[in-house]
# Entry
Amino acid sequence: MINNLSLLIITFFYIGKIKHAPGTFSSLATLLIWILFIPADYFIRISITFLLTIIGFIFIKLSLPNFQEEDPQSIVIDEVVGMSVALIFINDLSIMIIAFLLFRMFDILKPSIIYYSQHFPGAYGILLDDILAGTITSMLLIAYI
# Structure
């Protein structure tokens, strides 16, 4: 049985319990939260993303044995981490929206290395594909800016 704190974290405040497109809704919620961090310096943004990654990994690892699937749809903390990676270096609202769209495209389509990374076992695979989708999104947008 998953305890309440684990469920709160892995579902990102129960957004993962939304029946349709919980990954998209959690990515959108992350975007809305990150808009508040536009004035924050990069150290704060990197620190928040690092902490989200560590917390996400720990709670996914603890909770995963309670699920039948390898990558349950209700676990969306990985989308929060990946979307955060995509937004770390972006300070413009319109570019943040483009980052959201690109991240979702990469996360859904999983081209190239993103696809293969999801096959790592457990929490590693669940998080790694989203981290790579966020990294590729970030790199493309930094090159564009």
Q: What stands out?
A: The longest helix spans residues 122-144.
